[in-house]
Amino acid sequence: MTRNLLLWATAAALMLAAACATSPPVVTAPPPRDLIVLTTHPEDGPLGSATVTTPTGAVSLTRVNEGVQVRLGSAPPAPAVVPAADLQRIFGDAVAVMPPAARRYLLYFELGSDTLTPAARVLVSEILALVQARPWPDVGVVGHTDTTGAAPANVELGLRRSTLVRDLLVGAGLDGALVEVASHGESNPVVATPDNTADARNRRVEVTVR
Amino acid sequence: MRCCACLCALVLLASPSGALARQPAPPAGRLKVVTGTAFVVRGGATVAAAAGAEVFESDVLRTGPDGRLSLMLRDESRVSLGASSELALTRFAYAPSDGQLGLGLRLARGVLSYVSGMIAKLAPDAVRLQTPTSIIGVRGTHVLVLAEAP
Asked: CB distance from A75 to chain B under 8 Å?
């Protein structure tokens, strides 16, 4: 009888040990899969925000260096500020090769003419100098109009103006192969206005050195 | 105008060769810095990445353990990758006058630094970063992402 009990106890112990061996480990959580951080650098402009969404939840990042670690299949936990030293260690290499921010120049014409204002003429030489200084530059020349008139006509008007500026830049020595000419018409104003509003600030050509 | 474009597209798709329909889209951007081992995967072909090369929608960028690269997109978005990373440019549309705005980046693994450009400014909901675990909506400026390989 005693012997039987001992056998049963041994068998039960063995089964328990086997069960423990095959069950998933519960001691350590799996490592975090993704780290997402909102940050800013002097060149970046104002701090924005980001929303991190998984199938089971979402969080917003709104503060400088606020980050969230997300595991696959889990809702994102509450975000926390990531120490600068960690950001440098993890992201420093990538941030170090970021290209400098694009620079944008607004060129205005003398009223009702195809002649650039004196201020715009000064900018033309600045643009050429910056293009020289940057590796693998691209130059975007985009014409913009105010909301006077129909939108399709304004796309054409913007294109006429941007082509004119392209020709001026190339005439001043810019390599034409670097230049892309486009028109945003009235769709991308500096100052939002109602339709059919004359506004000199919106009648411009933007030259962007990327 | 848009109807006309649709009609043209239909005609091209219907044409037997289909060659014209595959006219390349304008480049999405340009590689600015490449160091160490880095590749561009385009339509199944893998070529070494080089500074100055153009980047297109649907391209996949890969860096090796010693690789890094950066690019500037046409909307002034800035992107860089650290070592052992893989990023797909899943969508790039930048034609504000047609209302065509969209940017999709999918980081499969590694390190991404992204600074938003005009697409995020004009249509914040049109920017989408994907990681293996999450979708990130970006309303401006600088986001860093680490995607650890499984």
From this structure: no
Any CB–CB contact under 8 A between B35 and chain A? Answer: yes
ipTM: 0.84
Chain A 142-201, residues with CB within 8 Å of chain B CB atoms: 152, 155, 158, 180, 182-185, 187-188
Q: What is the pLDDT of residues A99-130, one digit of tens each?
A: 999 999 999 977 666 778 899 889 988 999 99
CB contact under 8 A, B68 and A94: yes
- pTM of the shown model: 0.78
Do residues B85 and B42 touch, judged by C-beta distance below 8 A?
A: no
Q: Inter-chain contact A54–B134, Cβ cutoff 8 Å?
A: yes
One-character DSSP codes across chain A: -HHHHHHHHHHHHHHHHHHHHHSPP-SSPPPP-EEEEEE--GGG-S---EEEEETTEEEEE-STTEEEEE-TTS-----EEPPHHHHHHHHHHHHHTPPPPPEEEEE-BPTTSSPBPHHHHHHHHHHHHHHHHSSS--EEEEEE--SSS-HHHHHHHHHHHHHHHHHHHHHTT--GGGEEEEEEETSS-SS---SS---GGGSEEEEEE-
How many Å apart are CA A176 and CA B61, to the nearest integer?
Answer: 28
